[in-house]
Design brief:
Layout: E1 4-16, E2 19-24, E3 27-31, H1 33-36, E4 44-48, H2 50-53, E5 62-67, E6 82-84, E7 92-94, E8 111-114, H3 121-128, E9 134-139, H4 150-157, E10 163-167, E11 175-177, H5 180-189, E12 194-199, H6 216-226, E13 230-234, E14 237-238, E15 248-249, H7 251-259, E16 265-269, E17 282-284, H8 289-293, H9 309-323
Parallel strand pairs: 3-5, 8-12, 8-13, 9-10, 9-12, 10-11, 13-16, 16-17
Antiparallel strand pairs: 1-2, 1-4, 2-3, 4-5, 6-7, 14-15
Helix pairs in contact: 3-9, 6-7
Length: 327
């Protein structure tokens, strides 16, 4: 059941395209104006408080559910009829690429980096470099709004990302696509040199081998391989994670490799010892990852590059390897 409460907007802290940080009755809240309409001080709103009440670490804020002051009787997006979040109270129509010129086709060798957690995105993009045309494809498995990610905003502002695509229930990208396959084809048709696929922030997880959002990496790899692309898996590695299943090589990576049905290369930093489970991984010189990542938002589970260097080195290696595969 939804946990909703009524309140008044008391602070507008930060505005971005499609995303607002605010406070409702003094409590931190986020809003997505493209879904619920514009928001201003003094507005009468409904907010979803369940994540805070459950003390979820990645959801330490309320989410604006409806704006009773200025969010009623809003018109749908012109020409749209495919729904995001269909058959829920937040369903809204968005124009999808498949309805226009997305068409069919292949990837012709385009490298596709497949990430299992959102915090791999920045070091992967550093490995690819700013001179390439890179698209970010957000897959379900974590946060659904693309606009929630500060990392995506920074990477776009710094020239690492040219465009964003929201797949399935994800929303707020420059483009929307029904499936990962269509998203990859759309990126290739618009001349992207490489694609990085990831879930949004706040990974869904249960602690089981297959019950987590990181398997979106396998879905992306399978689609990329079937379409003639060159899928590269960013290994999730940690020397500092207190959980045994993520210490060293994460079980997320092993599960993605297991479920990959086509060609897939796991990138591995040559500076680290190769685990026996990844005997087929490709070693990559990742020694320059710190310099390449300087100034980018590097954080994973609250740990930075000094606390967990192996994590960021492994993600950088995936981007560096994908760069060598650009046709």
């Amino acid at each position: 059941m939804l946990s909703l409460r009524r309140g008044v907007v008391t602070t507008i802290a930060e505005r971005h395209d499609g995303f607002v940080r605010l406070e409702v009755d003094g409590r931190p809240c986020v809003a997505y104006p493209d879904v619920t309409g514009p928001v201003a001080l003094g507005d009468d709103v409904l907010v979803n408080v369940q994540a805070v009440e459950l003390a979820l670490g990645s959801g330490g804020f309320d989410v604006l559910h409806a704006n009773l002051t200025r969010g009623l009787d809003l018109a749908p997006e012109p020409g749209a009829h495919v729904m995001k979040l269909p058959y829920t109270s937040l369903q809204h129509a968005v124009v999808h690429a498949e309805e226009g010129e997305a068409g069919e086709g292949g990837l012709a060798g385009t490298p596709v980096v497949c990430c299992s957690v959102h915090s791999q995105l920045a070091p992967v993009c550093a490995g690819l470099g700013r001179d390439l045309a890179v698209a970010y494809v957000q897959l379900p498995g974590g946060a659904l709004p693309v606009a929630l990610s500060d990392t995506v905003r920074t990477l776009r502002a710094d020239g690492y990302l040219r465009t964003t695509v929201a797949v399935g229930p994800c929303f707020g990208g420059d483009t929307a696509c029904v499936s990962a396959a269509s998203a990859l084809v759309a990126c290739a048709r618009t001349g992207m040199d490489a694609v990085v696929c990831s879930v949004g922030p706040g990974l869904v997880g249960t602690g089981s081998r297959y019950g987590h959002g990181g398997l979106a990496a396998a879905d992306a790899a399978n689609a990329a391989g079937a379409l003639g692309g060159s899928p590269v898996l960013a290994a999730r590695v940690s020397d500092a994670d207190p959980r045994e299943r993520h210490r060293g090589l994460s079980h997320h990576t092993l599960a993605a490799v297991e479920l990959a049905t086509g060609p897939l290369t796991v990138a591995w930093p040559a500076e680290l010892e190769l685990p026996p489970e990844l005997s087929a991984a490709e070693a990559v010189d990742a020694g320059g990852w710190r310099k390449a990542c300087a100034g980018l938002p590097l954080s994973h589970m609250g740990r930075g590059p000094d606390e967990d260097p192996a994590f960021f080195a492994a993600a950088f290696a995936a981007g560096a390897l994908a760069r060598t595969r650009v046709p």
